[in-house]
Amino acid sequence: MTYDTLALEKRGSTAYLRLRRPERGNAIDRQALQELTAAATALNDDEDVRAVILTGEGEVFCTGWDLSGLGTEAPLEWARREHVLGDAFDSIAGLSRPVIAAINGDALSAGLELALACDVRLACAEARFALPETTLGAIPWGGGTQRLPRIVGRARALEMVLMAEPIDAQEAWRIGLVSAVTPRAELLAQAEALAGRIAAQGPIAVRYAKEAVSKGIDMTLEQALRFETDLTVILQTTEDRREGVRAFLEKRTPKFKGK
């Protein structure tokens, strides 16, 4: 598939997904959402991909929704017309492979919500983060009110949503919104190093681990523990699990095949 709003490429076991409209702040509209969904489907179908790096071109990650066609229309009406209401970034959150957000600049509104849909977030020192929708008389409508408190806690998430003020990268790191802050020139290399470490693990185990955490957090503890056990039992039937045991006993690096 040919993409207009993003670029998708693969190097070895790592896939790179880049928002590529820097002249528009890599803003998100209906077409961008459709292309993100198509790219996510392609990545899920590619057995060679073990990790995904999501970033933006230029000096911003994503400045939010593309409101260039808003005019005098209310934000809610624009969102309904553009079909961007609801869990807009569920295709990214639902990827079976771990997704690393390499946040190369400001992540605002939909940009932050997109980053929240990823599994790990790394940021450059210049990045700022905000959900400014209340300044438009609206609330975040792309998952921000739900994913943010699950990551940074209810109180801090409410402060960001209600105040609508940006925080810098160091504060984002302090509250656990991002895992690391690095100079912009080193950001992609750090994301690639992390992707490489993930790719070295058993790919089926990595997928199941992500599924256990992602789905288990919304279950009761009893249900989640049962789900974890079910996935563990399934893993025992795989060739990768047997290879992992053999490699441990033979004191060598395992050679996982994803089977």
What does it look like?
Helix content is 44%, strand content 15%. It has a six-stranded mixed sheet with strand order 1-2-3-4-6-9, with helices on both faces. It has a three-stranded mixed sheet with strand order 5-7-8. It has helices spanning 30-45, 75-81, 90-93, 110-116, 144-152, 154-163, 169-174, 184-199, 203-216, 221-235, 239-249; strands at 6-11, 14-19, 51-56, 99-103, 107-108, 120-124, 128-130, 167-168, 180-182. With 259 residues, it is α/β, with parallel strands linked by helices. The mean pLDDT is 90. It has two domains: 6-199, 2-enoyl-CoA Hydratase, Chain A, domain 1 (Alpha-Beta Complex), CATH 3.90.226; 203-249, Lyase 2-enoyl-coa Hydratase, Chain  A, domain 2, CATH 1.10.12.
Q: What portion of the residues fall into strands of 2 or more residues?
A: 5-15%
Poorly predicted sequence stretches spanning 5 or more consecutive residues = none
Q: Spell the H/E element sequence.
A: EEHEHHEEHEEHHEHEHHHH
* Number of DSSP strand runs: 9
Termini Cα gap: 28 Å
Question: Structural class from helices and strands?
Answer: alpha/beta
Largest sheet: 6 strands, mixed
Roughly what is the average pLDDT, rounded to an integer?
90
Number of domains: 2
Question: Which CATH C-level class of the largest domain is it?
Answer: Alpha Beta
CATH arch. level architecture of the largest domain: Alpha-Beta Complex
Radius of gyration: 19 Å
Shape: globular
Write down the CATH topology of the largest domain.
Answer: 2-enoyl-CoA Hydratase, Chain A, domain 1
Helicity level: 40-55%
